[in-house]
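Exercise: predict the fold of this chain.
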Amino acid sequence: SQTLAGGTIVCPASPARGRARPERLKVLAAMKHQQAETALAELLTLSPAGLDLRTFAQQRNLSTAYCQQLVSKLDAEIVTSSASKLAIHRNRLDDYRQQITSELNNWHQQHPDQQAMPLSLLQRTLKPTPNPAITAVVLQSISDEVEISKQTVRLKSATTTLPKSLQDLWRELE
């Protein structure tokens, strides 16, 4: 247990705003657990968009290797980007896969004249909005179903058609 002047330290990096929000209070309650594995399990449940593993390790004075062992015990995955190392439950990644497939299907139905959906728009439609590194990992995991470019993503099975007005004009020109 960490103490400072007789008081227990639960979170050394408290946010400037929203410290009394119900979600924040649940996170603090999870962080109070003495066992790192129990705290991490609860925090993963409370962090559907991913939990910053580096911050968790730093706050508990744990090694990266030990945190990775805990994550693997909890049926979660580690997603690494240049700026962060996130832990997320595998079932949450599956939820994001389903959301992405559904959003792309909807996009192609509503925009048959456009080849691909902007990646930034796809990112904003996912709920809760994940870290872009998580979105990238999920897209890579379904790469047999989607085509990914730098700024767009599309289902490989989607076809692009001209709007009816342009189809009629094309027929007239033939």
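Check your answer against the key: The beta strands are 3-4, 7-8, 51-52, 76-80, 85-89, 117-118, 146-148, 152-155.
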